[in-house]
Each structure stands twice: as C-alpha cells, then as structure tokens.
Write a structure and sequence with these properties.
One of its GO terms (biological process) is cell division. With about 160 residues, the protein is an alpha/beta fold. It contains six helices and five strands.
C-alpha cells in the first residue's frame, strides 16, 4: 500500500495557517491534526507564555509523530496544523515523513507583519479565549524565532 502524503505549514503567527489547513484537509479528504486543539485538550489552561508552549508542545510531539506515521502508513493523507517555523520544527516534520517514506508538501504562507497582526486582532474578537495569548507582544516575541524555509533544506515548498 502506498503511504499517504503529509502537508504542513510555515508562516508567521496570524498568517492563516489554520484556515488553510482546514481548507486543504477538506479538499483532500485528509485527516487534520491541530496542535492548538491537542494542546488545549491535553493541557487545558496550561499555556500562558511562550515558554509554556515550548514545554507542552515538546511533551506532545512524540505521540503525535507516532499517530501521524500510523495514519500515513495506512495510506491516508494527513494535514498538520502545527508550525514549521524554525529549522528544528521542520526537521521534526522531516523525521515524520521520511521514516515512513511518505510524500510531503510544505506550504509557506508569506504575509507582511501588518497583515498578520490585523488577522490576530480579528482572531481575538472571534475567539475571546485566545485573547490572553494572541497579542501583538506575543507576535513580536514569536516572530524573533521565525525562519522562512529555504530551498537548501530540501522540502517540497508550495506558496
């Protein structure tokens, strides 16, 4: 059986990764996994800072990796709404698909900071529970670590 294909995203906070992941999962009839949903379900109310996110996200990743690989091996496509915004994060995705010899697609959403901040502001209105962490200050803090994907990393990048 042919392995499924993994789709994942790179883009600054507020770039629209979640919206695109939902659209693509629906279009491709793929399994959608959202880091935000998993973190909230497994560690409710625990993430109030970037350090919290880093800690709890690292706790979640080993099991998510096993789950995604199992789905891919079964021949089903997976769309992951998990950030691929640093080289380390992208290397984690590489380990997921390469270990099971699955195809992949890295969708890079490149938007100006002003658009991302506007969309974050709209998200705070639409999802008041996120107002505590989805702030301009958090955007600035997180963006310091953002590294756009480059061709020398060897991913199948789509804009």
């Amino acid at each position: 059986m042919k392995a499924g294909s993994l789709t994942f995203f790179s883009g600054k906070m507020g770039a629209g990764k979640t919206t695109r992941s939902r659209q693509i999962a629906q279009e491709r009839n793929a399994v959608l996994l959202s880091e935000d949903e998993w973190l909230e379900a497994v560690y409710p109310g625990c993430i109030t800072s970037l350090d919290d996110y880093i800690h709890y996200s690292a706790q979640l990743r080993p099991q998510i990796k096993k789950l995604v690989q199992s789905i891919l091996v079964a021949g089903t496509d997976v769309v992951m709404d998990f950030p691929a915004n640093t080289i380390t994060q992208r290397n984690w995705f590489r380990s997921i698909f390469s270990e099971v010899k699955a195809q992949h697609e890295l969708i890079y959403i490149d938007l100006p900071d002003s658009v991302c901040l506007e969309q974050i502001g709209q998200r705070r209105i639409e999802q008041p529970a996120r107002a505590r962490t989805d702030t301009d200050a958090m955007f600035v803090q997180v963006t310091k670590y953002f590294v756009a994907p480059t061709s020398d990393e060897g991913f199948n990048v789509v804009s």
